[in-house]
Write a structure and sequence with these properties.
By secondary structure, the protein is an alpha/beta fold. The protein has a seven-stranded mixed beta sheet with strand order 3-2-1-4-5-7-6. Helix 5 links the parallel strand 2 and strand 3. It binds S-adenosylmethionine (SAM). The site of S-adenosylmethionine (SAM) has 20 residues, from helix 1, helix 4 and strand 2.
């Protein structure tokens, strides 16, 4: 995804992002996975690609996390600044060039961002800003599940576009090991989800995931017409998340 396409996508989505993305129960599941895999409770922690700050906000309130966030999008950060308590520091920066001194953090995490980054540069930066023994947790989509997405039957290119973007658990483990991490592990977590048809159509029309901004326009429009005609009510499906954890070598 080019920098310009990504920047436009998140600029347009920023104000409706929290309403369009995971419902509260799914968000809570993600937070619990991060806290367990990253041992985040009470830690000095960086959220890379923090977006609207919805995860940082829960971590600070319920898990005493001393949170910091960075994001490439000024529009997403404007929403985060409006939502987050003032003591949580968020700033505009890229994952590939983190504006922090060496070993500044005890913990780093990222959710639904790793498919948008230069991973070699980002993992090297995370290794630099993490203390020895510090932990990293990543949540992303399991690429093996893409063909089963409820959107795959509407947009034929959907699985191949995302297969080229989303790394597997094995790939992430190997890349992290090469970047100075040990104890690299991954697990797949399956969760049932359901949307009403009207809600699903609204998500599609607003291109609630970046893949929809990467489809050829004629395919996107044809998929919308098909969705109006063919989607069941409710839309029920399973999300397969990939949870990766690793420790900065000492
Ligand atoms: C799908 S959103 C996820 C936001 C948040 N992590 C969440 O789970 O709600 C992806 C975010 O990553 C940010 N992003 C994309 N590429 C980035 C980069 N290279 N460095 C920092 N942030 C980036 C985007 O601006 C966007 O806010």
């Amino acid at each position: 995804m080019s920098q310009e396409t990504m920047s436009n996508h998140f600029a347009q989505l920023a104000r409706s992002y929290d309403e369009l993305r995971n419902p509260d129960t799914a968000l809570r599941e993600s937070v619990e996975m991060l806290v367990a895999a990253g041992d985040l409770r009470g830690r000095h922690t960086l959220d890379i690609g923090c977006g609207t700050g919805r995860i940082l906000s829960i971590l600070a309130r319920d898990y005493s996390v001393h949170g910091w966030g960075i994001d490439a999008s000024g529009e997403m950060l404007a929403v985060a600044r409006a939502n987050l308590p003032k003591h949580i520091n968020v700033q505009q920066a890229t994952a590939e060039s983190l504006p922090f001194p060496d070993q500044f953090f005890e913990r780093v995490y990222m959710t639904m961002v790793v498919h948008l980054l230069d991973r070699t540069r980002t993992f090297s930066e995370i290794a630099r800003v993490l203390q020895a023994g510090g932990r990293l947790a990543i949540i992303t989509t399991d690429p093996d599940s893409l063909a089963e997405s409820w959107m795959a039957s509407l947009f034929p290119s959907y699985p191949s576009i995302d297969a080229a973007r989303f790394p597997s658990g094995i790939t992430l483990e190997q890349e992290l090991a090469e970047s100075g991490f040990t104890q690299c592990q991954h697990v797949i977590v399956n969760s049932a989800r359901s949307y009403g048809k009207a809600e699903a159509l609204n998500k599609l029309r607003q291109r609630f995931v970046s893949t929809l901004s990467l489809l050829p326009e004629d395919e996107f429009q044809a998929g919308l017409v098909r969705a109006e005609r063919e989607l069941p009510d409710p839309v029920e499906y399973t999300v397969s998340s990939l949870l990766v954890s690793a420790q900065r070598a000492g």
